[in-house]
Amino acid sequence: MIRPLARSVPAAPTDRELGAAASHPDLSGEMPLALHCTGLFKRYGALAPVAGLDLDAHRGELLALLGPSGCGKTTTLRLIAGFEEPDSGRIEVGGRVVADLGPGRRRCDPPERRRVGMVFQDYALFPHLSVARNVSFGLPRGGRGESDRRVAAALSAVGMAGMGERMPDQLSGGQQQRVALARALAPNPDLILLDEPFSNLDAELRAAVREEVREILRGAGATAVLVTHDQEEALSLADRVAVMWGGAIVQAGPPEELYHRPVSRAVAAFVGDAQFLPGEANGRRVATVLGDLPVHGQATGAVEVMLRPEALRLAPAQGPASGNGRVLSRLFYGHDQLLTVRLDSGQTLRVRVGAYGGIRPDSRVVVGVRGAVLTFPR
Amino acid sequence: MQTLRPRAARPTVLPGFGRSGRPVVVRRPATGRLASPPTVLWLPALFVVALALLPLGYLVVRAAEAGPLFWETVLREKTARVVLNSALLAAAVAGSTALLAVPLAWLTTRTDLPGRRVWGSLAVLPIVVPSYVGALAVVAAFGPRGSLQGVLEPLGVDRLPSIYGFSGTWLTLTLFTYPYVLLAVRAALQGIDPALAEAARGLGHGPWRVFASTTLPQLRPSIAGGALLAALYALGDFGVPTLLRYDAFTRAVFVQYRSAMDRSAAAVLALLLVAVTVGLILVESRLRGSATLHRIGSGAARSPRPVPLGRWKAPAVAFCALTVALALGLPLLVLGGWLVQAARSGTTFDDLGIAAVHSLSLGAWTAIAATAASLPIALLAVRFPGRWGMLAERVSVLGYALPGIVVALAFVALGVRTPFHQTLALLVVAYAVRFLPEAVAANRLSLLQINPRLEEAARGLGATVVAAVRRVTVPLARPGLLAGASLVLLTTMKELPVTLLLSPTGYDTLATRIWTAANDAAFGQAAAPALLLVAVSAVPTLLLATRERPRA
């Protein structure tokens, strides 16, 4: 199992072609991490949804925890929030140890002492309290004026100013989402956890709310960990994505790095649309049915070459006898199109190209590759 | 999208028993629970459980002290007779209530019986008549020189078969406990998918055969569950066998205690009674097996077409009318008659108000105490299933196995040695222990409807366990908690043996008034408090019975 890149920093989006996390300076000495989990284990009988998990989140970053359903993402979130007790491992929030379990160590703070805000999948707004009372729930009592001021500030931060007297059941799904966010943000926690926050919204609303949520979290300068199984959501929203598999993090890094430099075939296939061709690598080049291609880094021997559909090039063949494949089908999306091509060597490849170009099913084509390719040992 | 609206808990037929009459066992997925329950929950829960186990513990210690007397008492020929008597009574009541309730349930839900809604409500109402009040009415009607004999005398009948003994006790308990079975069976009937019966009709079976081949097997668990409740009631009831002079267990325990002042022998008998009750519960659960865990879905998709009764319409109406006349009309008529007589003879009811206030305030205090005591147990059972849920489950069932007379005996004996002897506090504690299972079951059901994420959200916002319960759980569960509390209030007001044995001297309640008047054969004085009790009980019962109907 591959350890996550220890101290990668989100900062500015890195150069597309060089997702090199190692080139960033080590900041951990200057500022404590907002979240620092090491060696977390959690078992339920024979199941171990969390098995040796290490996870870091930096101040002010939006980290997406991405993984297939049932990979232990939600359990991880619940361990961090304190709703479940890990069997072993250590959790630090904002530099404070909130859980430390293992031989001879039995510290586990209850949720209310962790300064961690949670936004639940179904929002879990208190149905018997107004919007304003929901938001003020986590604020210290007394000092009414102060509390009112903070509630108003939190509500206006999420664009719900003046809706404080509404009851939760009078709100739309998107509004409930924003109230849940305001409620979690109001006590100014060290960390905000979001459990599949957009899964209850319909597709149209989802894109808009995603944008909003990101802006709200940015505006509040909050550190957030978001759990999702939707890779598009993770890639588009997060500063950094941690891919979870079998109870541990297999790769963590900026979205570009994850997409262009997956550490394994499995991650490549999970994040984005990946297809593989066999090849024989020879140092900096690899021989495939699509020709001799340049390789990222070094590789030798039998490998699998990862090809994203948009990294392929398509040109009409000069005659019926030329070209290296035939178009099987075409899905036209408007902004682009996806063509399925059967290579003469037998493999099928998906190729994403621009909306123009009159390549139709059954036409002969030449399939080429843009730039260097990533290889995995076969 | 899932909305988190607080729903009023729908009270079930009987606390601890689901709509089908099965004990409710609810499993929740593994997620959403902490590894270990917080101390603020398990410590009070443990205290309450210990209190609830006190009567049983007392009996065991007392019986152990009896030494050789223990076996002497157990093996006495008289003991064998009362065991047999009680077992016979329980079995007979279980059978007769089922025979009465199943046709009633079917007629009032599945057929074109004229006025079936009205019959449906009327048939449940006898549940509000305390069984000892019912016994008084039965004696008045069918006893020597009773109304029936008065009517028959001109016809030359000057002797009726005696109402005292087994037959009268059986009749009375059947008349006033069949609504338990009726409610269970009716709820199950409403949950059965009518498509099954229609499929059977489509396969060429006639209506009677359909009932026997598809409906009845599905009803079996609820019939068994309801009949078990009736049998347990019969086994633990004190008032009816005493008034109708049937040598049942409870009466023997009381007589042993009162006349001989022989505490050890009474304890041995009481322990034996508990053993018989537990045996009955075990037999039922063994018979049920694990295969038929009857589950009622969220309700039938649509209501089935009523079965036409045809020429059976008149006999069906007559059957309903006769049942309601005996179980509801008779006691009301008798009590009304006595009231009129008493008013004519100038009896005053001045201090009736005081007794009513006493009953009501005792009921209210018990409702508060039992609800508060049951809350930690119910919370543990709901939020920490597994070992803790089991515990709550066990305590609930155990409570049904402890007849009132047993609880009363134990608390009398324990109270004598404390400063609480002859205080209302002790009485309320005994009531609360007696009705704890009811409260636990009712509250557990209402807590189950609350999304555990809401409590977690509160914790995440900085609320402690106690604060989360106070600020989120209790407000959301309020309708259900109130329903459970009113159920406890109602049953407390009707309660007899604990009241008789533990009321401070001179502290009259409606129940003690009725009992004293009945024992003095001063029926006129029993009428007013009995009618008042029935009227007060009817309100929450009607609410429960009407809410049990599935909503569209």
From TrEMBL, chain A:
<feature type="domain" description="ABC transporter">
    <location>
        <begin position="35"/>
        <end position="271"/>
    </location>
</feature>
<dbReference type="InterPro" id="IPR050093">
    <property type="entry name" value="ABC_SmlMolc_Importer"/>
</dbReference>
<dbReference type="GO" id="GO:0043190">
    <property type="term" value="C:ATP-binding cassette (ABC) transporter complex"/>
</dbReference>
<dbReference type="InterPro" id="IPR003593">
    <property type="entry name" value="AAA+_ATPase"/>
</dbReference>
<dbReference type="InterPro" id="IPR015853">
    <property type="entry name" value="ABC_transpr_FbpC"/>
</dbReference>
<dbReference type="GO" id="GO:0015697">
    <property type="term" value="P:quaternary ammonium group transport"/>
</dbReference>
<dbReference type="GO" id="GO:0005524">
    <property type="term" value="F:ATP binding"/>
</dbReference>
<keyword id="KW-0067">ATP-binding</keyword>
<dbReference type="InterPro" id="IPR027417">
    <property type="entry name" value="P-loop_NTPase"/>
</dbReference>
<keyword id="KW-0547">Nucleotide-binding</keyword>
<dbReference type="GO" id="GO:0016887">
    <property type="term" value="F:ATP hydrolysis activity"/>
</dbReference>
<keyword id="KW-1003">Cell membrane</keyword>
<dbReference type="GO" id="GO:0015408">
    <property type="term" value="F:ABC-type ferric iron transporter activity"/>
</dbReference>
<dbReference type="Pfam" id="PF08402">
    <property type="entry name" value="TOBE_2"/>
</dbReference>
<protein>
    <submittedName>
        <fullName>Molybdenum transport ATP-binding protein ModC</fullName>
    </submittedName>
</protein>
<dbReference type="InterPro" id="IPR013611">
    <property type="entry name" value="Transp-assoc_OB_typ2"/>
</dbReference>
<keyword id="KW-0410">Iron transport</keyword>
<dbReference type="InterPro" id="IPR008995">
    <property type="entry name" value="Mo/tungstate-bd_C_term_dom"/>
</dbReference>
<dbReference type="InterPro" id="IPR003439">
    <property type="entry name" value="ABC_transporter-like_ATP-bd"/>
</dbReference>
<keyword id="KW-0408">Iron</keyword>
<keyword id="KW-0472">Membrane</keyword>
<dbReference type="Pfam" id="PF00005">
    <property type="entry name" value="ABC_tran"/>
</dbReference>
<keyword id="KW-0813">Transport</keyword>
<feature type="region of interest" description="Disordered">
    <location>
        <begin position="1"/>
        <end position="24"/>
    </location>
</feature>
<dbReference type="InterPro" id="IPR017871">
    <property type="entry name" value="ABC_transporter-like_CS"/>
</dbReference>
<keyword id="KW-0406">Ion transport</keyword>
